[in-house]
Structures are given as structure tokens and as C-alpha cells.
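Why this split exists: single-chain examples teach little about how molecules sit against one another. For that reason, every record in the complexes split bundles all components of an assembly together and asks for one structure covering all of them. Below is a record exactly as it appears in the raw files.
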Amino acid sequence: GAGVSQTPSNKVTEKGKYVELRCDPISGHTALYWYRQSLGQGPEFLIYFQGTGAADDSGLPNDRFFAVRPEGSVSTLKIQRTERGDSAVYLCASSTGGRRETQYFGPGTRLLVL
Amino acid sequence: KQEVTQIPAALSVPEGENLVLNCSFTDSAIYNLQWFRQDPGKGLTSLLLIQSSQREQTSGRLNASLDKSSGRSTLYIAASQPGDSATYLCAVSYSGNTPLVFGKGTRLSVIA
């Protein structure tokens, strides 16, 4: 079956611009996670959705970052007034929401802010 | 703040060698621990998941152990192959269905 998909796979933008990154989770998965991975680092948690609501957004670095999941399936991560330090790979993962279920990761979106 | 440390940061071995990757975590009250593989430019693939009540998990040539009291896990790879070359990431969860805390990974190169 289809895994987690993310679009675009690569995004180049200029400092100060607005970007949207999309995640399509595995069908039926109620839990959705966003992580950010900088070069040479492990992924760092940004935000977690259970259904339509953000259950934990403690990882969002500042108010320029926002994410939505209006119908409990597809999620969009939005970054306003991008900065060069936002350049990273943004990973999305989903799971069934069960307590023992692993998270399945998408291929990521590589964001480069010039 | 929970921290996960992986040693070594990079490792290069000849084909056929058995090897061990190490992971340590500061807060031993974990719910589970996972080992992932990441190929260059790709997402993460889950290799093994160990619940806190378990001591080890095996899948093919891979064996992961967990010593919760000492805050350590090891990933053992038997008879390494060039196709095993990738970055291996360790991650812990502190309750069911919550965000994972990752280490920085070990970059493995298996030389033919």
C-alpha cells in the first residue's frame, strides 16, 4: 500500500518568503508528526496531531511556524518570513495512534532558503 | 531535557565484519526505543522497535538490545554488507504514541 508522501520533494525560496509543505499520511492513520532535520543532526520534533487537533506543538521554534490538519488526514506545515536558518529537511510521519505502533516516515521535503 | 547520544558518529568496516552501534539516553523512563535506517536523501525506515519491558529484538542479521536501567541500547549487525551502508538513528519515546527523541545517528560505511 501507499506510504507517507510529502510534496514538494525540494523547495528553494528566498529569505522573507512564505512556504507551505504538504504531508499525506497513510490512509487511516490518526496520528501525524512533523520533524525537522538539519544537516548532520537527528530529526527534531515540531508538532503532533491526533485527528484534526494539535495535541502537542511544543517543538515549533517560533510563531513563524504553523501547521494545520483540517480534515484529519492531509497536513500542511506553513512557514512565514522564512530565514536562512530554516533550511533543513522537513519530515512527516504517521501512525495508527495505537500505543505500541511505530511511526512511518515520508521521504521529506528539502527546504533551502537563500 | 531528554538527550539521546549515539557513538560512534561514523564507522567504516570491511565487508563481512560484525559490528555494534551504541545508543544512550539520559532519562531511563522510556516507553520504547526504535532503531531507524536513513539512506542519503531519503526518509527513515524503522528497523526494530523494543518495548520498555523487552530486552531485545531480532530481525534477520540485526539484533537490538535494551538495558533500560543503565540507559543504553545496542544495535548489532552480523556479517555486514555494502548494502548496509547508511545512517542509523536511535530514538526513544517517553509514553505511547508521542513524539520521538532522536540521536544524531551513526554513519556506517561497509567497504567491499
